[in-house]
């Protein structure tokens, strides 16, 4: 199929399994003053703005920095995050901040306004050492996971630990086993004379 991308204008050839029917945005929850992004008719680029009015197939948008409204097709308007999505984003930010707080520096290493130059230098050195130790611990925990997964694999794979020919006193791991088998056959038939009939 040849498709034209809405809001961009470029066309491309795509496979059948990459095409889905387009569903127009649901405008029932759109109200005047809704913050959105929309394609400006002058240059075809996306800009921030506020919804003024929803019409059939189009909407009036007042772009930031402009006093006049512009009529934009509904396909070229993207509302900002809803309140639920905004709460989810804030929760993720708080979770990331809590994770960062776990890695925060100890109170004793914080540089205070009343500290002397000598104390500040000592705290900076200790802080560098503290960060180095944290980094080393993180790398070790990563390496430990890799090591344990290899050990579990090694335990499952029986051919790594044992070889089939340890019972043979003439077995040499550095030699080609096919060559050894051929020599054994030659020795076997050369030591015995011709067959008795």
From TrEMBL:
| Protein's UniProt name | Tudor domain-containing protein
Per UniProt, residues of the Tudor domain are 29-87
The species is Strombidinopsis acuminata
Q: Where is this region: Disordered?
A: 138-176
- Basic and acidic residues composition bias: residue spans: 138-147, 165-176
């Amino acid at each position: 199929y040849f498709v034209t991308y809405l809001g961009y204008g470029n066309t491309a050839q795509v496979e059948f399994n990459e095409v889905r029917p387009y569903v127009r945005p649901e405008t029932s929850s759109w109200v005047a003053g809704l913050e959105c992004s929309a394609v400006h008719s002058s240059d075809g680029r996306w800009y921030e703005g506020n919804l003024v009015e929803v019409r059939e197939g189009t909407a009036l948008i007042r772009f930031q920095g402009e006093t006049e409204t512009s009529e934009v097709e509904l396909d070229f308007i993207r509302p900002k995050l809803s309140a639920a999505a905004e709460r989810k984003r804030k929760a993720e930010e708080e979770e990331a901040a809590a994770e960062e707080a776990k890695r925060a520096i100890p109170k004793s290493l914080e540089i205070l306004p009343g500290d002397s130059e000598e104390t500040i230098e000592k705290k900076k050195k200790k802080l560098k050492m503290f960060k180095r130790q944290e980094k080393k611990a993180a790398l070790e925990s990563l390496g430990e996971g890799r090591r344990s997964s290899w050990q579990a694999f090694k335990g499952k794979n029986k051919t790594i630990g044992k070889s089939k020919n340890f019972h043979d006193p003439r077995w040499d791991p550095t030699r080609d086993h096919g060559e050894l088998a051929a020599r054994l056959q030659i020795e076997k038939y050369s030591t015995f004379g011709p067959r008795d009939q």
